[in-house]
Amino acid sequence: MVSLWEHFRSGGGSRGPRFDTVGGASTYAIELTKRYPRLSLTEQGAENGTMRINLSWRMRAADFTERPRRRGSLRHPLQLLKPEPVHAHTQGMVNVDLDLACLYELADGTKGVVQPLGGFYGAMNEPPFVKLSGDDRFGSGSGETIYVNLDQSEQIKRLLVFVYIYDGTPAFDRTHAVVTLVPSSGPHVEVGLDERAPDARSCAVLMMEHEKGELIVRREVRYVYGFQADLDRLYGWGLTWGRGYKSTTRH
Q1: From residue 50, how far is each of 26, 130, 131 by CA, in Å?
Q2: Buried b vs exposed e over 47-86: b needs ≥16 C-beta within 10 Å?
Q3: Are 157 and 209 in contact (CB under 8 A)?
Q4: What does the pLDDT read at residue 181?
Q5: Could you state, in chain order, the average pLDDT of each consecutive group of 10 residues for the chain (251 residues)?
Q6: Rounded to an integer, what distance in angstroms lies between the CA atom of residue 30 and that of residue 186?
Q7: CA–CA gap between residue 147 and residue 124 (Å, rounded)
Q8: What values do phi and psi take at 8, rounded to 5?
Q9: What count of other Cβ atoms lies within 10 Å of the Cβ of residue 87?
Q10: What does each C-alpha distance from 166 to 16, 171, 190, 198, 247 come to in angstroms?
């Protein structure tokens, strides 16, 4: 079977899906899209080692730079020479705190969540073999990262990576967020949250699970208007949820 890298080198050909790629010849990323939502990590030799899952975001530039186009007329041509009025950033300046999290189900049936809310940071070398590092409240370049110990991948049945807005205005439509998987080998895998969902507070981004002996990652990008309990019901996790708060301690 032709590998993905051979597929790129051959110009695509007729075999296998064609993914959207980002980057040059030395480093590149595969973007999972509606058209090509699925990738086998096993085929890429990326089912071992430590995988990083990173969330980064920024406010959409349009919220700060777009202004209504001014129109002139033959009767009032000097209107175009008047200075434009300055408007306060009312809709653009919103308080957004995106959090990266993960629902997990292990092979022995154990289920749970890794998230900053409630201080459930997980562990790398013991169940659930998933650990969250940091809580970025400002969308910096480093963002938030979940580490997955894929040397224990046989003990992991499925992982659902999701993003939620802990505090502030629901504003998935005002942010440009990207979740990136960085395996120990092979290309990076990107999932962009570019769909407009102005009232949503959570988004199921991707699912990673075993299918027919392969470790598969699949794009989800399903927005919900509630929080973790709503995602739980959507994917049938069966956990019991209560009110939680963020810890002031960074891990």
Answers
A1: 21, 10, 11
A2: bbeebebbbbbebbeebeeeeeeeeeeeeeeeeeeeeeee
A3: yes
A4: 96
A5: 37 44 58 95 92 84 47 49 39 66 96 90 96 61 81 96 79 83 93 85 95 95 91 93 56 44
A6: 10
A7: 7
A8: -65, -45
A9: 10
A10: 39, 11, 23, 15, 13
In whole angstroms, how large is the CA radius of gyration of the chain?
21
**Looking at residue 182, what is its pLDDT?**
95
CA distance 207 to 237: 13
Structure tokens at 21: 């790629």
> Nearest 5°: CA angle at 184, between 106 and 45?
80
Q: How far is CA 16 from the centre of its chain?
A: 25
The predicted model scores a pTM of 0.74
Among 211, 210, 193, 190, residue whose Cα is nearest residue 202: 193
Distance between CA atoms of 66 and 250, rounded to whole angstroms?
36
